[in-house]
Amino acid sequence: MKIIIASIFIETVPPRLVLNKLSEQPLVYPIGANVQLVCPVESSDPDSMFVEWMRNNEPVDEVSRYKITTRGHLKFKDADITDSGVYTCKAINGFGFTKANVTVRVMQESELILMKSSIDNRYPKDNEFVPHEYVAPNEKITPEFFTKTKEVRYVEKYIGSQLKLKCHMSGISNPQINWFKEGRMLTDIDLPIGSLINRGVLFISHLRLTDKGNYSCIAFNEFGQSKASFVVTVKG
């Protein structure tokens, strides 16, 4: 008769910081973006850990715009400049707690375009946004893509890599720009964490197999519209 003795080791320590998730640079969002902040900690027993959030040393008000998910993420919609600041998460379990700071900066698009310093937060750099060009008053201009309207661009990427699709335009008369995947309009909330839609740029920070497909962007004003299409293949 064999007797098997199994032992289970339960780590009795507070939550730990995840160093590769910490960033000394602020996370930059455009006005109107949907924001999701992740507390850069981990625990041997995630189910026994809960997370509290503060903004500029004041507890966030979950009754208003802020929501803390069951995984401890802080979410809010329609970011405004007043949402800029230092957010502190406090991860707690039965053996103690750990704190971490996440700095958020919400900026107008014009500031993003003119920003000289590069902020590394997995978003497109400032020189990837096309500066506005002067348009004479009352001049009727339809946005003109460098990529011809009927031309399709094929893009091949690997799982986990970054994807940047750009609709460059010459001549801007306040066009509305929408992005689509398989004919359905995309918003920030449809993308993975750390990804961004900002007018002529679609940026996905960490590609998944499900991100493959047919993408298109349409820029239009009252005088007409232009379209660019992309076929994205994601390899394992």
Give structural attributes.
mainly beta, signal, 5-stranded mixed beta sheet, 236 residues, Immunoglobulin-like, 1 helix, globular, single chain
Task: Explain briefly what this protein structure is.
The chain is 3% helix and 41% strand. By secondary structure, it is an all-beta fold.
Quantity of strands, as a count: 20
- CATH level-four homologous superfamily name of the largest domain: Immunoglobulins
Shape: globular
Mean pLDDT: 74
**CATH class of the largest domain, anyone?**
Mainly Beta
Strand content: 35-45%
Kindly report the CATH topology of the largest domain: Immunoglobulin-like
Note the total helix count: 1
Q: Termini distance?
A: 48 Å
- Topology order in helix (H) and strand (E) letters: EEEEEEEEEEHEEEEEEEEEE
Helix content: under 10%
Overall tally of structural domains: 2
Q: Outline the biggest β-sheet.
A: 5 strands, mixed
* Radius of gyration, in angstroms, nearest whole number: 22 Å
CATH architecture of the largest domain: Sandwich
Structure description:
Residues 15-105, 143-233 form the Ig-like domain. One of its GO terms (cellular component) is plasma membrane. InterPro entries: Cell_Adh-Cytoskel_Orgn, Ig-like_dom, Ig-like_dom_sf, Ig-like_fold, Ig_I-set, Ig_sub, Ig_sub2. It holds the Pfam family I-set. Keywords: Disulfide bond, Immunoglobulin domain, Receptor, Signal. It is a single chain. This protein starts with 15 loop residues before the first strand and ends with a strand. The protein has 236 residues and is mainly beta. It has one helix at 109-114; strands spanning 16-17, 27-30, 35-37, 41-42, 50-55, 58-59, 67-68, 74-76, 85-93, 96-107, 144-145, 152-158, 163-166, 169-170, 176-181, 184-185, 196-198, 201-204, 213-221, 224-235. Helix content is 3%, strand content 41%. The strands form six sheets. Strands 2-10-9-5-6 form a five-stranded mixed beta sheet. The radius of gyration is 22 Å and the shape is globular. It is built from one helix and 20 strands. The chain folds into two domains: 16-119, Immunoglobulin-like (Sandwich); 152-234, Sandwich (Immunoglobulin-like), CATH 2.60.40.
